[in-house]
Structure formats: structure tokens, C-alpha cells
Amino acid sequence: MAANILLVEDEPGIQELLKFNLTQAGHQVTATGDAEEALKFLKTTLPDVILLDWMLPGMSGIDLCRRLRNDERYQPIPIIMLTARGEERDKVLGLDTGADDYITKPFSPRELVSRIKAVLRRRAPQMTDELVEINGLRLDPISHRVQGRGQALELGPTEFRLLHFFMTHPERVYSRTQLLDQVWGDDVFVEERTVDVHIRRLRLALEPSAHAELIQTVRGSGYRFSADVG
Amino acid sequence: MAANILLVEDEPGIQELLKFNLTQAGHQVTATGDAEEALKFLKTTLPDVILLDWMLPGMSGIDLCRRLRNDERYQPIPIIMLTARGEERDKVLGLDTGADDYITKPFSPRELVSRIKAVLRRRAPQMTDELVEINGLRLDPISHRVQGRGQALELGPTEFRLLHFFMTHPERVYSRTQLLDQVWGDDVFVEERTVDVHIRRLRLALEPSAHAELIQTVRGSGYRFSADVG
DNA sequence: GAGCCGGTGTCATAAATCAGTCATACTGCT
DNA sequence: AGCAGTATGACTGATTTATGACACCGGCTC
User: Fold this and answer.
1) From the Cβ of B199, is strand D under 7 Å away?
2) pLDDT at residue A70 tops 90
3) Are residues A151 and A217 both part of a single domain?
4) Are both B17 and B112 inside the same structural domain?
5) Which candidate, B71, B101, B191, B193, places its Cα nearest to that of A23?
6) Where would you tag: which of A58, B89, B98, B227 has the fewest CB atoms within 10 A of its CB?
């Protein structure tokens, strides 16, 4: 996993506790004490997940959440609300603001970690280190290996990331621009056509185990990874 | 194994019993009777494992555990809770404070010893003194020897630790940074590229028995120890 | 204390791989 | 056929690793 997490929690004790547990779980944590501080941090860095305390001094967590959800830059970042209240009403409210999940205090660190994992899996499956296997094509992020029906396949770094993204987002067309954003990164300036070249390299790499056809061209739209031969 | 163990147990009888058994098992044991004493000891020495009684006079074991878990200095030290209660609720609580394991009284010394071993293996597999053997490559931490198919191999201290780490964490890619943390130590300031050099030295040392290829380069990611030739 | 030595970290350079671009060939569709 | 979108092969600069050399350090010997 190893996600970058932004924690917004005013109570020092809890902040410390959470930071410790999350770090322990292999995450990179930045802790802030209020909404302003959090926003400041967000100006320079985009975390993978935001943990947001419900009650905060100044702008409340729920306000911050709404605000983030209205900014397209932060929109894709999963938000998990931490709340001390257990009322159903509040929970619903929390979700309506655009939070991806909420968790009621007191909670076990274990639970939190697993929720983070769940949220990441939903938003950015390629970030979880889970092994993916489709139609006999297997990609293991941990050992950084790809096998096609048992046979080892060689692919370069970019092809590996590309395949990983595809395998965690199958059956769906992605434009070249989207692929550039997702696989290369938002801040890269590269020709769109470069994607074609890497698609080709990926296909070549998958050729030995006849998995090349899983990468399908959708004329006028982009590419799709699909188990369907059609 | 031969670990340094800090025992925190207020009941003299049990303390003696445990100390005897653990010493018998080859460990170095320091016994303390309460949390304060334990903390004092910890200021000067970092043990490999902490055995913590649940009920203690003054600060309870669980409080001590939480406290230790919030101090990054003690963070990596495995903690095993000793508890007289068997309730599930308590167990969960104990784990949530950051304890690595718990064991319910009464327990057999044998069980305790094996749990210690397990916890050590989990936190830092290369700390257990167990002999490791992969593909005819054998590393014995006790005699500090390495053999490739019976043939003795010469490697320096750093290469030995590096190989030990790799052999206890196979089939997994590690970045240079991770290797520096794990093999050199967190507090060392060394160039990342230095890892390359030691990888090379390790490969050279494994050459005589043709085990060099177990150390694999994963371009753009780091290195991997793998029995797979692929 | 001088000199030797194994062990380490750094660096410069060579070698290996890769990424991005482009020109050109190819394809499917109208 | 004509057009727009893709595939392909080749090329070049850039990045990443491998390698050999070297300087430094602490311990030891004489």
C-alpha cells in the first residue's frame, strides 16, 4: 500500500496515536491540526487519502470536506471522516458532503487501516499491493513480476505501470490523456501519441503468452483492457 | 536467537519463573517490577522484545504499551502482553494498543518462548538465528557462515547482513532506500548508490557457487532476492 | 608509532535500458 | 479514393545500473 495520508485532527493525543498506527502500517503521514493548515499543505502536495476529524477548531471538518469536494483538483482524493458521534443522522450528513467513508470513535487502528485500504482499492486500485490475475495473466506488485500462464514476461517500468493500471481497471476505455494522467502522472508533459508507442511495447511484451489481445484499441476513444475477446 | 528481553511483571514469583525460563532458553533478561522502572531502563537500553504484564501497580501495562507505541524510539520493539484475563474484549483492547501478541496466564514457558520467537520473526525475520536455505544457498546466522552447495563462501559483514535480509525476505522488491533502512539502519546517512556497490560485492561473493543470479535487479524499483530464475 | 589490511562509502566512467519523437506505413470508415 | 486515426520501426538523448578505482578509517602487528 504505502499511501500518503493527510491527517486533520486537532486533538494532539489522537493525532499522535493515529500517526503512529498509520506509519506502522507503512503509510506516509502528514498531520495537521486544523482546516487552514490542511489547505495550506494541500496547495503543494496531493495526498492519496485524507483523514478528517469531524470537529475542528475554526472551519469544521465537514465544511472542509465540502470545500475539497468542490475543487476538482482535490475531488478524486478519498476522504474518510472521523467522528465521535454515532448518530445515524450525522453519518448520513457526513456521506452527503462527499466523504467516501466515515468511522466512529472510538475505533481500532486496525479498523481504520482496513478502511483506508478499502477506500484506496475503490479509488485507486493500482495503489494496493494486491496481486492481480486476469485470464491467466498475473501481475504481482510486490515481487514486481508479470507472468503469462506461468511464463515470465519482461516489461519495462512504464509498461509495468501501464499494465498494472489496466489490470486494476479492466473493461473500461481510457483516452490517451487519461492514461497519461493515471500512469505517467498529472504533471508530465508528453505527446499523446507516446501512449501508442508504449501500448505497442506492452503488446509486444505480452506476445509470448498470447495476452496481447487483452489490450484493445477503441478507435476514436483510446484503449481498453478486457478479458473479452470480442 | 539470544534476544534481549525486558520483562515487566510485578509479582515476584512469576517474575522469577519467567526470568529463569527465558534465560534457560538462551535469552538475556532484564526484569522490572513496574512501568516506571521499565521506562527508566528503556532510557538507556533498547531490548529486542518487551514482555508486559497487563496488571501493574501504578501505570498499567496497557498504558505503558500505549506510551511506548507513541514514542518512535520504542516503536519497532515487539511487545507481548501477559494477561490473566481471557476475555475477548480485553484481548482486542490489548492488540489495539499496539501490542504484537498477548498470552493468557497460565501459560507454559514453552509457549511463551515460541511466541517470542514468532514475534521476533515477524518484526525482523533476520534477527532470528535460524538457518536459512534457499536453492542450495545456506546461511547460518549462528556460526555466521555461508555455503553454496557445500562450498564455503566469503563475504564481508555488510554483505552478510544484506544476504541475510534478502534470504529472510525473498520474492519481494526492495528499493535502495528500504534496503538502507533495513540493512544499514534508519539513522545512517549513506548515498543510495552505495547499495549498488554492495549488491555487486554480494554477487561477486556468491559467484563461486553460481548463486549470484538469485540477486535480481528490478530496473526503476530496486533489487529482489528470488529463487525463480525468471 | 609506522605500516599493513580488510572493510566501507564515493566517485567517474562505461554499459545497458528506456522514454519520447518522428516519419512512414497501415486501417477502417464514409 | 480520401481522411482521420493507429501501428510500427528507427533514432537520439536521458536515465539507470554496473564496474573499477580510490581514499578513508579503525584495528593490528611489528
Assistant:
1) yes
2) no
3) yes
4) yes
5) B71
6) B89
Put simply, the answer to whether B172 touches A145 (Cβ < 8 Å) is: no
Closest CA to B169 of B95, B115, B90, B222: B222
Quote the CA–CA distance of B126 and B182 in Å, as a whole number: 10
Interface A–B counts its CB contacts (< 8 A) at 42
In a domain, B145, yes or no: yes
Contact assessment for residue B52 and residue B80, using Cβ atoms and an 8 Å cutoff = yes
Span A115-139, pLDDT tens digits: 888 788 787 777 778 899 999 999 9
pLDDT digits (tens, 9 = 90+) for A124-182: 777 778 899 999 999 999 999 999 998 999 999 999 999 999 999 999 999 999 999 99
Chain A residues in contact with B226 by the CB 8 A cut-off are 143
Same domain membership, residue A163 and residue A95: no
Same domain (yes/no): B115, B143? no
Chain C positions within 7 A of any protein Cβ atom are: 6-12, 17-23, 28-29
CA-based angle B128:B91:B64, to the nearest 5?
70
Show which of B99, B123, B147 is a domain's final residue: B123
Residue range B80-111, pLDDT digits in tens: 888 765 544 444 454 556 677 777 666 777 77
CATH number at residue A146: 1.10.10.10
Say which range, A20-29, A102-111, B48-57, B145-154, has the weakest mean pLDDT. Answer: A102-111
Among A11, A17, A28, A161, the residue to mutate for chain B (most B Cβ within 10 A): A17
Which residues on chain B place their C-beta less than 8 Å from a C-beta of chain A? 66, 69-70, 72, 75, 92, 95-96, 98, 171-173, 218-221, 224, 226, 228, 230
Give nearest nucleotide to A217 (CA–C1').
D6
Asked whether the beta carbons of B153 and B147 are under 8 A apart, the reply is yes
- pLDDT confidence of residue B140: 92
Per the structure, the count of domains in chain B is 2
Q: Note whether A123 and A137 are same-domain residues.
A: no
User: What separation, in Å, do the N-terminal and C-terminal C-alpha atoms of chain B show?
Assistant: 34
- Both A123 and A138 in one domain: the answer is no
Q: Which domain holds residue B177?
A: 132-225
